[in-house]
Amino acid sequence: MSEDEKKQSTMKDVINEKNQSLRDQKYNEYVEKVTPKHSWFINMCYAFFVGGIICTIGQIFTNLYISYGADKEKAALFTVVTLVFLSVVLTGFGIYPKLAKFGGAGTIVPITGFANSVAAPAIEFKREGQVFGIGCKIFTIAGPVILYGIFSSWLLGILYLILNWSKIM
Amino acid sequence: MGISMENGLSTNKSVGKQSVLFQNPPCVLGYSSIAGKKEGEGPLGSCFDIIEEDPLAGGKSWEDAESRLQKKAAELAIQKASLQPKDIRYLIAGDLLGQLIATSFGIVDLEIPMFGVYGACSTMGESISIAAMLIDGGFADKVIALTSSHFAGAEKQFRFPLDYGNQRPLAATWTVTGSGAVILGSPKEVKKLPEDTNPTIHITGITTGKVMDYGIKDSMNMGACMAPAAADVIFHNLSDFDRKPDYYDKIITGDLGYVGADILKDIMKEKGYDISKNHMDCGVEIFSKETQDTHSGGSGCGCSAITLTGYVFKKMIQREWKKVLFVPTGALLSTVSFNEGNSVPGIAHGVVIEIME
Q1: One Pfam match, by short name (chain B) (predicted)?
Q2: Looking at CB atoms within 10 Å, which of A151, B322, B347, B351 has the fewest?
Q3: Is it the case that residue A36 has pLDDT exceeding 60?
């Protein structure tokens, strides 16, 4: 089947298709065609706008901390802590999800999104107890980020070691 | 063809491939609808018996809240039928939560012998079907069919924690918070006062659905997953009973939403039946597309249940609709099946509801 024909799958093709896997394939194509989707361009603009605002707020804090006498590295650290704190508070009040609905990736990519993904399960699973609720489920969303973050830093560490070692050789 | 039975049963009630025609159509003795706040603010808000403003319904967790909704719905239906819980022979109930915990904890105080059923969001159709068969089969005189769903409980189990920030796709539906109950009784249980001129509502037949899988893997597009199942049930209902779509004043699907409803009409058209004139979807009706931002409409066991008990029965009592085919639809997925890469099969259960004077 060529690309053009693929997109033309109609309900008639689906109903008349006797082979089950072909039928499923045609139905998927049909559904793809009739299912409405968010406009990725508009979403991207929102994400750019909201993400930009979050980063600007971060910059404001950094400048503020520097003006109070912190060095650049410490100011960045304080900024991260502040943004995480704000995100958790906004999550607790149910404001962050509203922001995310509008801002999409703009709210997910910055550190505030990570904080939200940890705080939200903590709130949700509190009822199931401190250990099996919060303890076990706090990282249900952030878990993969943490695991593969550590794993890739470990891989890079080895790569760094090998490169260093080969230079020495 | 139906199984022929000559060992004791006087008539064979099975019709066609997967339908049943009741000999003494079970009668609706009482019904109730408990809706959540958002549902109460929707277009059908004025139809529901009780609107529960508190998302926790006075409970301590979402699951507890759903149990409380079920209990309230069951008690109200029993009260409206002027009965006591002890008068009910069987309770057929289910919900969306794992191991039906909303049901178990909700109905424990009622002390009614119980069958737990799982049909995902089609549970109301499944429980009414079984209840009606029990009654016409002579195994019970009064049976209550009950189901519920809760937005926050469903989100927690199937999707993300409530406060997690994400964007829902446009094909996604919004789980209805609510619980509906229907009490069925044998026709001789109907005690009508002479001044009561309202018709009685009867379950005259059922068409039981098969699990249908057309290979859709997108759990956020449940309308597309369930549309083939709904189409199959409607098709077999029409062919088993040898009826045309216009036999029914309304063909009411459960929670296909805007996306699924369009697909269903398309499938039926290709199969040679035009249902576009009398089709209605509970998921489309229950929320306002313009103001409530639910994307493709409502879903969940509660969606079809409270639309049936709050809205459809009202229309039937007013004689606006005399014959209705009620087809709640369910998407049979779990987070495990989804994560393991399975598709999302659908099921639907058809119930023929008619009024009699």
Answers
A1: SpoVAD
A2: A151
A3: yes
Phi/psi of residue B94, nearest 5 degrees: -170, 170
* Gap from A72 CA to chain B (nearest CA, Å): 31
User: Which residues of chain A are within 8 Å of residue B163 when distances are taken between CB atoms?
Assistant: 91-92, 94, 96-97, 116, 119-120, 123-124
Is B165–A125 a contact, with Cβ atoms under 8 angstroms apart?
Answer: no
The alpha-carbon gap from B20 to the nearest alpha carbon of chain A, in Å, equals 26
Residues of A in contact with B346 (CB under 8 A): none
Q: Look at A28 and B216 and tell me if their CB atoms are within 8 Å.
A: yes
Sign of CA dihedral A19, A24, A25, A27: positive
Contact criterion met (CB < 8 Å) for B169 and A37: yes
Residues of A in contact with B262 (CB under 8 A): 34
| Chain A closest-CA separation from residue B153 CA (Å) | 10
B267 with A15: Cβ contact below 8 A? yes
Q: Do B167 and A101 touch (CB under 8 A)?
A: yes
Distances (CA, A) of A121 to A39, A93, B26: 29, 14, 46
- Give me the residue from B161, B166, B266 closest to A11, CB to CB: B266
Q: Judging by DSSP bridges, how do beta strands B19-21 and B200-208 pair with one another?
A: antiparallel
Domains present along chain B, CATH in parentheses = 24-187 (3.40.47.40), 197-356 (3.40.47.40)
Asked if B159 has any chain A CB less than 8 Å from its own CB, the reply is no
The pLDDT assigned to B119 comes to 96
- In the three-class reduction of DSSP (H, G, I as helix; E, B as strand; rest coil), residue B127 is classed as helix
SS3 string of chain A? Answer: CCHHHHHCCCHHHHHHCCCHHHHHHHHHHHHHHHCCCCCHHHHHHHHHHHHHHHHHHHHHHHHHHHHCCCCHHHHHHHHHHHHHHHHHHHHHCCCHHHHHHHHCHHHHCCHHHHHHHHHHHHHHHHHHCHHHHHHHHCCCCCHHHHHHHHHHHHHHHHHHHHHHHHHHC
C-beta atoms of A97 and B165 within 8 A: yes
Report the alpha-carbon distance of residue A122 to residue A99 in Å, rounded. 19
Predicted local confidence at residue A3, as pLDDT: 47
Among left, alpha and beta (phi > 0; psi -120 to 50; other), residue B293 is left
Q: Is the pLDDT of residue A7 over 70?
A: no
CB hemisphere CA count around A74 (13 angstroms): 8
Strands B90-94 and B114-116: parallel
